Amino acid sequence: MIRVLVQTAAIDVAAELDLHDAGGHGASASFIGRVRGDDGLTELFLDHHPTMTGAGLADLAHGAVDRWQIAALTLIHRVGAMAPGDTIVLVLASSPHRAEALAACEYLIDRLKTDVMLWKRETFADGRVAWVEQRDGDAARAERWG
């Protein structure tokens, strides 16, 4: 089972865990990305391309399933306005053994930073607004997966 969603609504992590693990897999790995509250950040806005963002996430999910023995995969990414502490992304990967689940989860989070059409705009308490540039480390982490 592969589930890929792009949504504006809050991600209900507990409900997604229950839905994902209904199959009783041997191992599940997860990544939960949240909005940081660093430096007076008050809002993170994620803009996206409605067609290309979903397609990019789906391509990555299918790539992970093709590469590792993954029995179930959930990849949910939020878009729109979010506050510090809100969940931005949820990755759940399950397989018969932990190595595959962990590798798939890490691969997905590393690659979506560089391969998926998403743009982040930060708003701060002092009125500053800035678009977030890709970090050099993001590209290096993505490249190691080939």
- Overall average residue pLDDT: 93
Radius of gyration: 15 Å
Number of strands: 8
* Biggest sheet statistics: 4 strands, mixed
CATH architecture: Alpha-Beta Complex
- Assigned CATH superfamily: Molybdopterin biosynthesis MoaE subunit
Shape: globular
DSSP strand (E) fraction? 25-35%
Low-confidence stretches: none
Reported by name, the CATH topology is Aldehyde Oxidoreductase, domain 3
What is the number of helices? 4
* CATH first level: Alpha Beta
How many structural domains does the protein architecture include? Answer: 1
Descriptive notes:
The chain is of the alpha+beta class and 146 residues long. The protein has one domain: Aldehyde Oxidoreductase, domain 3 (Alpha-Beta Complex). The chain has four helices and eight strands, in the order βαββαβββαββα. The chain has a four-stranded mixed sheet, sandwiched between helices. The protein has a four-stranded antiparallel sheet with strand order 5-3-7-8. α3 packs across α4. It is globular, with a radius of gyration of 15 Å.
Briefly summarize what is shown:
This protein has helices at 13-20, 50-67, 98-115, 136-143; strands spanning 2-7, 27-34, 41-48, 72-78, 80-82, 87-95, 118-124, 129-131. The protein has 146 residues and is α+β, with helices and mostly antiparallel strands.
